[in-house]
């Protein structure tokens, strides 16, 4: 039985394999047929495509020929004048709009805008625009055509660019911005005129800015241009976003302000108190005292013995008074010294001498340190005195610098550390030269021994630094040597300090007589300490 099953199985397998082979052969034949059909379709498509491309080329050539013929005919029609009368029933008559002339005095931007509108309304082409624009030019505007080459005179863009470069509003932008900043409401000018002018200047100065930015700037410039403080303050607080809002609010505020200007009657009142009566009583008592003094003075004059009428004044050689009572003004009394009268003092100058101007001594002596310099080109030795709070110049040297004199009242005195006093003669505004630098400084004129004394005011103002170890003074990186003026001190070799001490004018240096000393110095001369 098993053997029969195996035979049946083999038969079935053989039958299936035969069927599968047949199916494969059929499928392969179908695929080959489909491929042949596809190839034939491709060949047909290629043939159709080639035919279509040939047709397109033929149509394209025909269209190009037609377009060329049409353009040629259009150009001939434009150049050919119309010699036959137009039928009024078939044609539309459009009114011609005339434009103004341009002579270079008016705004080119405004004229250009007007010309564009007129040319559009009249239907002009570029060739007609050129002829019309040239015909509208007058005065200095016509001279621009001489700068254009002859072959470019028919080019509209070339002519417009030349006129724009000569008369355009794009170049003076900075000028319009400055005019905006300085624009103010003129007397008798209304706010509307001011707003219109600012709006025009804004369009010229900030043409490239967005509209919202221009509106905000115009409102700010309008508020700044209002002269009335109350109106300007109120409009500024309103914080307008554009020019129209600011104009409307300012006009409303001014109208309300004018209406509110009504006459007000002020009622007078009287205040009575004891303070006023006390003041009146004191005033009356003082007045009585003055009257008594005056009467006693007059009585004293009457009781004085009568002068000899034959006495002669030695000043004016007239009789009846003495020289000290002479009222005659001599020419010498009007003579000016350093720019002020020398013969008499003005009443308001007769005050007590002012305190505060100090100097160590009127003479530097043997221990003074000097530097070489000049005052307004006059060479001199300058004593460096850190105990002086002012800079001084000798009187005879100041007489050579009269043109630099600054008038000073003769009520200022100079005080030394030892208690001596000297009168200040005046004040000069001079150029002090130390080393390679010049310094403009105001100095006092006094009767001193040295030609010039440099005080702390000069040292502090120009940041001088005194080095006592190296015997030099520094400013701005320059080192200026200090030395003794006397021949006896020419052998000075060194200045030694217990500590290395630099004095800077910013810190301050005590003058002789100060309760506190900041340093100690030894000077070795001739080998002796």
UniProtKB/TrEMBL annotation:
<dbReference type="InterPro" id="IPR036875">
    <property type="entry name" value="Znf_CCHC_sf"/>
</dbReference>
<dbReference type="Pfam" id="PF00098">
    <property type="entry name" value="zf-CCHC"/>
</dbReference>
<keyword id="KW-0175">Coiled coil</keyword>
<dbReference type="Pfam" id="PF13975">
    <property type="entry name" value="gag-asp_proteas"/>
</dbReference>
<feature type="domain" description="CCHC-type">
    <location>
        <begin position="313"/>
        <end position="326"/>
    </location>
</feature>
<keyword id="KW-0863">Zinc-finger</keyword>
<dbReference type="GO" id="GO:0003676">
    <property type="term" value="F:nucleic acid binding"/>
</dbReference>
<feature type="coiled-coil region">
    <location>
        <begin position="31"/>
        <end position="80"/>
    </location>
</feature>
<dbReference type="GO" id="GO:0006508">
    <property type="term" value="P:proteolysis"/>
</dbReference>
<dbReference type="GO" id="GO:0004190">
    <property type="term" value="F:aspartic-type endopeptidase activity"/>
</dbReference>
<dbReference type="GO" id="GO:0008270">
    <property type="term" value="F:zinc ion binding"/>
</dbReference>
<keyword id="KW-0862">Zinc</keyword>
<dbReference type="InterPro" id="IPR021109">
    <property type="entry name" value="Peptidase_aspartic_dom_sf"/>
</dbReference>
<protein>
    <recommendedName>
        <fullName>CCHC-type domain-containing protein</fullName>
    </recommendedName>
</protein>
<dbReference type="InterPro" id="IPR001969">
    <property type="entry name" value="Aspartic_peptidase_AS"/>
</dbReference>
<keyword id="KW-0479">Metal-binding</keyword>
<dbReference type="InterPro" id="IPR001878">
    <property type="entry name" value="Znf_CCHC"/>
</dbReference>
């Amino acid at each position: 039985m098993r053997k029969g099953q195996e035979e049946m199985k083999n038969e079935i397998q053989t039958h299936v394999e035969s069927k599968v082979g047949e199916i494969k052969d059929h499928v392969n034949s179908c695929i080959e047929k489909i491929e042949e059909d596809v190839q034939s379709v491709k060949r047909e498509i290629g043939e159709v495509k080639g035919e279509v491309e040939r047709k397109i080329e033929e149509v394209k050539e025909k269209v190009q020929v037609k377009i060329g013929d049409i353009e040629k005919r259009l150009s001939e029609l434009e150049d050919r004048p119309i010699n036959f009368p137009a039928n009024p029933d078939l044609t539309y008559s459009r009114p011609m709009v005339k434009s103004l002339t341009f002579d270079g005095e008016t705004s080119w931007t405004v004229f250009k805008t007007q010309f564009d509108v007129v040319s559009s309304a009249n239907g002009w082409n570029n060739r007609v625009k050129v002829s019309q624009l040239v015909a509208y030019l007058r005065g200095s505007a016509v001279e621009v055509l001489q700068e254009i080459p002859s072959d470019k005179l028919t080019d509209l863009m070339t002519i417009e660019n030349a006129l724009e470069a000569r008369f355009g509003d794009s170049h003076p932008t900075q000028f319009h911005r400055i005019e905006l900043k300085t624009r103010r409401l003129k007397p008798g000018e209304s706010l509307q005129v001011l707003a219109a002018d600012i709006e025009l200047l804004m369009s010229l100065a900030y043409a490239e800015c967005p509209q919202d930015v221009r509106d905000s700037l115009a409102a700010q410039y309008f508020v700044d241009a209002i002269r009335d403080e109350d109106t300007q303050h109120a409009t500024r607080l309103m914080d307008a976003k554009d020019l129209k809002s600011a104009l409307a609010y300012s006009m409303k505020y001014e109208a309300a302000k004018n209406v509110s200007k009504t006459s007000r009657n002020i009622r007078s009142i009287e205040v009575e108190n004891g303070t006023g009566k006390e003041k009146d009583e004191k005033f009356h008592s003082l007045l009585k005292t003055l009257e008594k003094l005056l009467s006693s003075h007059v009585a004293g004059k009457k009781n004085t013995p009568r002068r000899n009428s034959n006495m002669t004044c030695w000043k004016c050689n007239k009789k009846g008074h003495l020289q000290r009572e002479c009222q005659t003004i001599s020419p010498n009394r009007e003579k000016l010294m350093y720019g002020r009268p020398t013969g008499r003092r003005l009443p308001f100058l007769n005050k007590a001498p002012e305190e505060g101007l100090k100097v160590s001594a009127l003479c530097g002596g043997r221990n003074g340190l000097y530097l070489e310099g000049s005052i307004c080109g006059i060479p001199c030795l300058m004593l460096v005195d850190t105990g002086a709070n002012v800079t001084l110049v000798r009187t005879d040297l100041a007489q050579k610098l009269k043109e630099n004199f600054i008038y000073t009242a003769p009520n200022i005195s100079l005080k030394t550390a030892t208690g001596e006093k000297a009168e200040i003669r005046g004040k000069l505004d001079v150029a002090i030269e130390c080393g390679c630098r010049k310094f403009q400084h105001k100095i006092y004129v006094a009767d001193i021994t040295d030609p010039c004394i440099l005080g702390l005011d000069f040292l502090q103002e120009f940041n001088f630094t005194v080095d006592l170890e190296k015997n030099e003074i520094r400013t701005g990186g320059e080192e200026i040597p200090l030395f003794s003026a006397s021949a006896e001190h020419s052998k000075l070799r060194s200045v030694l300090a217990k500590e290395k001490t630099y004095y800077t004018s910013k810190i301050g240096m005590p003058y002789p007589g100060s309760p506190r000393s900041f340093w100690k110095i030894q000077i070795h001369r001739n080998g002796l300490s």
